Amino acid sequence: MGAIAATGNKGKGVRSDCFVTIELTEQDGIQLQVESKVAVMYGDSIRKETLEILDFFGIKNARIKIEDSGAISLVLAARIEAAIKKLIPSEKNWLPAMLDENRYTTNKDRNRFSRLYLPGNSPSLMINAGIHKPDGIILDLEDAVAPDKKDEARFLVRNALCGIDFYGAERMVRINQGERGIEDLDFIIPYNVNLILLPKCEKPEQLLAVDERIREILQKHNQTNPVWIMPIIESALGVINAYPIASSCSNTVALAIGLEDYTADLGTRRTAEGTESFFARSMVVNAARAAGIQPIDSVFSDVGDMEALRQNVLRSKALGFDGMGCIHPRQIVVIHETFAPTPDEIDKARKIVFAFHKAQEQGLGVVAIGTKMIDPPVVKRALNTINLALKMNKLAENWRETYEQI
Fold first, then answer.
1. pLDDT digits (tens, 9 = 90+) for 106-147
2. CB 203 within 8 A of CB 179
3. What is the DSSP secondary-structure string of 177-205?
4. What does DSSP say about strands 114-119 and 170-174: parallel, antiparallel, or unpaired?
5. Nearest-angstrom CA–CA distance, 350 and 362
6. Candidates 3.20.20.60, 1.20.1250.20, 3.90.550.10, 3.10.129.10; correct CATH number of 100-339?
7. pTM of the predicted protein model
8. Burial of 201 (0-12, 13-18, 19+ CB in 10 A)
9. What's the CATH number for 4-87?
10. What letter does residue 262 receive in the DSSP assignment?
């Protein structure tokens, strides 16, 4: 019996995936067995692609079994390639074509109200995730992937970046910690990823090492597209070093906090009120604002209680956060609606901006609305609200034209 490798998922409840077993043999050519409920329609295409991949990697003698549960081509290819590379070293890559829809870049200051976490080894959750319209899609290689599945998840995430349409969402990948995370970058940076999430960041050196490796890979592939970084603060030490982390790298666009690991590090329990994390969240907001980047709050873990989520977003917004993570698509609408400026906030901001503009035209040094004096920080906050409303198309077109003239 020769060397054997297996990749993928199978069993009850598994969808849009496959389980691939490859055994290298010394003779008898390729012996291929395909088990699939859709074999009548897709069996021939599964066999054809499998044989093409085996030939590409120079495998002439092997027994292969594919247990299919509706895997699309890029998933099948990722599973086969991962199994092959467990058995033989190869620098070659079997890549799906990059969709034209996936060649976009993202701006440093774009809205990041929501980012939807997706396990990096679960294709069924990736395929249609973009239809829920999150601001960002996170393909997670860290906590959401079992340790013995992390290597094969890299191939799936790489292929997803190439071949799954995420409908304009910022395409993010959360890498692993340490050296494994640095190695993850080789699988994702060349494939037009928009943003890297760096988990459990505790010091600037971790961030700088990731940024340096990103630059090396982009240079190697002659790419100039920006790849942003979002460090995640998840420990007491990370909180204390929040500003040095936030200000250490020009490609950092946001600073996030992860409260599950942070409260575990403190030895306390996470509560709905959030009193145990008030200091840490405030530190992250202040560090991000001082560094000129976006502060992003943690996920809310109760996916069934939308009112509790709304209250949590209101508290997050009051602290100064610009967005938060989500672990279920149903959370996205609540997060977007609650972080967005309300009609009253927009109307108040509009009055402040026009009053300030009018005072400037008249050469007045003092701005007032009614009996309230308006100072520059208040005007700046109002301008931020108006700009956000403009981004979200919350202003009527006539107000947009008037504001843009100002």
1. 999 898 999 999 999 999 999 999 999 999 999 999 999 999
2. no
3. SHHHHHHHHHHHGGGT--EEEETT--SHH
4. unpaired
5. 18
6. 3.20.20.60
7. 0.89
8. buried
9. 3.30.230
10. H
